[in-house]
Design goal:
Mean pLDDT of chain B: 96
Oligomer: heterodimer
Number of strands of chain B: 5
Number of helices of chain A: 12
Strand content of chain B: 15-25%
Low-confidence stretches of chain B: none
Number of strands of chain A: 14
Strand content of chain A: 25-35%
CATH class of the largest domain in chain B: Alpha Beta
Shape of chain A: globular
Order of helices and strands of chain A: EHEHEEEHHHHHHEEHEEEEEEEHHH
Order of helices and strands of chain B: EEHEEEHHHH
Radius of gyration of chain A: 18 Å
Mean pLDDT of chain A: 97
Helix content of chain A: 25-40%
Chain lengths: 278, 161
């Protein structure tokens, strides 16, 4: 399976990448680890005239603590996130989620920026990014701007990133250990049929859900129903609201009813596991 | 437009002018004539095309050769030295870790990476580490035996040294 021909550009800096996007407009696609774009190109669902490979921009690969948050460069691989001691210590939900993505080879190549920009409805990070209320920084011709996680996912494979922008950094808060990511996966690909991320903090509970609908969402019905009660009964009752107000996807792997059911079960399990880590 | 790509494959410098759309697996097979790396599912799932790029296991059907420009690539052909099988190859030989053999090069490269990263400590860890490699003969049990064999051989080597 050969993709259609394209011109290949490999900018060394973010500014060069932004300039290439400005120059080529819609004809260009950004290539990070390639594990979303290349399969789409092989099926010729994507046929960009120009591929801008940002995978080698070394200044976009880091994990560090800054201003009371944890900052992760967009080209940091899933493996680097899964193995990060700093993240395991200060924001354990992110490495836990990363360790569930695909397999070893996929995690060695795929990047957090690439995954978020692709916005696959069954990707793992979106649930976690929402539950952490993360910030996504993008660079464009007018400089940098920050998008809140809640505003980031727009629709199936669509985000709030403009065509002339690229993700540079993801910022997540320092959290307690009372977090968990629980998913039921499609066995061959490892993609989530239903992935639920839960964050329990003094300021409240946040639940992110992926794999169920056209885009990942915050299960606000669950969060409100809990009202700070974290007993087994309260969790079980609240979890029944995990798919409220969403239209579940239906495909060869799982019907809409099954997905909605899995959302509820995995929400309960994620909340129980997060509580147990307190 | 074809562009130059320079990399080292099994410690041998290679230089070709290729179309950027050439996938690493096709580059290795068709341009370097190294056909040990297999094309399986072509969708990044089966792992038959696994090679090491700068020491890390990747699925070469989901990487453009130009992305590996400047890198060190190791394929199944690069494991044996002076006619001696790599401990993982020897493990597959000794423990009958293959049946039809189609998945074997990918299994072995993924296993080499697993041992190098210290992630082969138990049967469960090996199974998790090889979840990106599918064997249609379903010979998984012997494959795990083979990796454990290689791990023990490596440990014995360290003990002797």
């Amino acid at each position: 399976m050969y993709p259609a021909n394209f011109d290949y550009k490999r900018p060394a800096t973010v500014d060069e990448a932004v300039a290439l996007l400005a120059q080529h407009g819609d004809a260009a696609k950004l290539l990070a680890g390639g594990h979303s774009l290349i399969p789409a190109m092989k099926l010729r669902l994507a046929q960009p005239k120009v591929v801008v490979d940002i995978g080698r921009i070394s200044t976009l690969s880091y994990i560090r603590e800054a201003g009371g948050k944890l900052a992760i460069g967009a080209m940091t691989t899933h493996q680097e996130i899964a193995a990060s001691r700093l993240l395991q210590d200060k924001c354990p939900l992110l490495p836990e989620t990363a360790s569930h993505i695909g397999d070893v080879q996929v995690r060695n190549k795929g990047t957090i920026g690439g995954s978020l920009a692709h916005a696959d409805p069954a990707a793992d990070y979106p649930a976690t990014i929402l539950a952490l209320d993360a910030e996504i920084e993008v660079a464009g011709p007018n400089g940098r701007r920050t998008i809140r996680a809640g505003d980031f996912f727009v629709d199936l494979l669509q985000t709030a990133i403009a065509a002339n922008e690229l993700i540079t950094e993801i910022r997540v808060p320092v959290t307690a250990k009372t977090v968990a990511y629980v998913k039921t996966e499609q066995k061959a690909s490892g993609f989530a049929l239903a992935g639920v991320a839960a964050v329990i903090s003094p300021s409240g509970v946040r639940v992110g859900v992926t794999g169920i609908a056209a885009k990942a969402y915050r299960a606000t019905g669950v969060e409100q129903a809990l009202k700070g009660q974290m007993t087994a009964n309260a969790i079980a009752l609240a979890a029944t609201h995990a798919a409220d107000g969403v239209e579940p996807l239906s495909d060869i792997h799982a019907s809409a009813e099954y997905r909605a059911h899995l959302a509820q079960v995995n929400t309960r399990r994620a909340l129980e596991r997060a509580v147990s880590r307190g | 437009m074809p562009i130059p790509v320079r990399l080292r494959v099994n410690n041998t410098p290679r230089e070709h002018t290729i179309e950027p759309r050439v996938l690493l697996v096709h580059y290795l097979r068709d341009h370097c004539n190294l056909t040990g790396t297999h094309v399986g599912c072509e969708t990044g799932i089966c792992g038959a095309c696994t090679v090491l790029v700068d020491g890390k296991a990747v699925k070469s059907c989901t990487v453009f050769a130009v992305q590996a420009d400047g890198s060190d690539v190791t394929t199944i052909e690069g494991l044996a030295t002076n006619g001696h099988l790599h401990p993982v190859q020897q493990g597959f030989w000794d423990r009958h870790g293959l049946q039809c053999g189609y998945c074997t090069p990918g299994m072995i490269m993924a296993s080499v990476h697993l041992l190098a990263t210290g992630a082969a400590g138990s049967r469960e860890a090996i199974a998790e580490g090889l979840r990106g490699n599918l064997c249609r003969c379903t010979g998984y049990s012997h494959i795990i035996d083979a990796v454990q064999n290689a791990q023990q051989a490596a440990n014995a080597e360290v003990a002797r040294a």
